[in-house]
Amino acid sequence: MELKVLFPGFSEIIQPDNNNTRANCTCTLIKGPPNIIVDTMTAWDGPKLVEALQKNGLSPDDIDYLICTHGHSDHIGCNYLFQKATHIVGFSISHKETYFSSPDFSKGQEYVINDGVKVIPTPGHTLQDVTVIFNQDEKVYAITGDLFENEQDLDDESIWIGAGSDNEGLQRKHRRKILKLADFIIPGHGAMFAVPHMYHLWG
Asked: In this protein, which residues make up the domain named Metallo-beta-lactamase (predicted)?
């Protein structure tokens, strides 16, 4: 399996007087099988997402799992493209008109796709956030959505708090969990970054 960041996310204030923001989320492909797309950007991004998949030898119908780290509009906009995939949107797991009650993310249970990929609950930014954990070559990659905005929020928590947090305490708890676990983080609105070694030493 191979992980590719198709589009790194971004977020910037464009009109300071009224706090308007220009933003889009990071979109990540795990090329398998199974083929997995994580966070599908806005509803206006369909053509460029299809083109990016084609460059990787895939079409939307080749995607087996669509995972959205949470339900905000900049993370779910192109879900409609993936008609054959199982959809995991936050804590909701469905295929077409069938919704599955297991695993129960609200009880801390994990969705295991295979030995290399699983989905774990990491609420905080919203109360139904999930993170995708991908293991490759003895390295752990965490695709976190807005649990982490970007690498800069490691040193400036006002960045992730200012982006919105339904529960700051939960978000801090799950950020700490991911920092101890992961070698690399793919955040919601920035480039992938390596986790500084000091975080792996936390008790």
From this structure: 24-189
Q: How many domains does the chain have?
A: 1
pLDDT tens string 87-137: 999 999 999 999 999 999 999 999 999 999 999 999 999 999 999 999 999
Enter the tokens of residue 26. 């990071």
List the domain range (segments joined by +) for residue 124.
2-201
Long-range contacts of 167-171 (CB under 8 A, 24+ apart): 167/123, 167/124, 167/127, 168/124, 169/124, 170/123, 170/124, 170/127, 171/123, 171/124, 171/125, 171/147
Domain harbouring 155, CATH code: 3.60.15.10
**Is residue 50 within 8 Å of 81, Cβ to Cβ?**
yes
